[in-house]
Amino acid sequence: MPTLEFIFRLLAAMAAGGVVGLERQINNKSAGFRTNTLVSVGASIYVLINVMLTENGGDPTRIIGQIVTGIGFLGAGVILHRGINVQGLTTAATIWCSAALGSLAGLGLYMELLISTVLIILVNTAFKKADKWFMGERKNKSDKNERPFE
Question: For 80-93, what is the mean pLDDT?
């Protein structure tokens, strides 16, 4: 692989992870800009190493399976249990998605990288509003159930 292509793939991973991380940073989440960028770039580096080693034959998907497992452990570290409440699941899932973005970049799948990045940001922004709307409905129903005589 030419050095310029290597650099371009790393920059694509950095941009995708950075955009996702920026959204998390703006929303004051524990894994923000730097974390998501590094996860994406790191995954891309591993995929690029594997792609270069398997240019003459081999299975480049083997390392991706290991990235999925490794990032699972990293994501588990951001999940917090506080009584019956669990926090950090979306952050953990976003870190996992950033690793997938890095893997796409490392494989040179740029259109897929762009589509995936947009969808991850859409889920983290638009679905957050939907969550609040659903939780508001649930809260309103529970308020009515608690005060049946009002």
Answer: 85
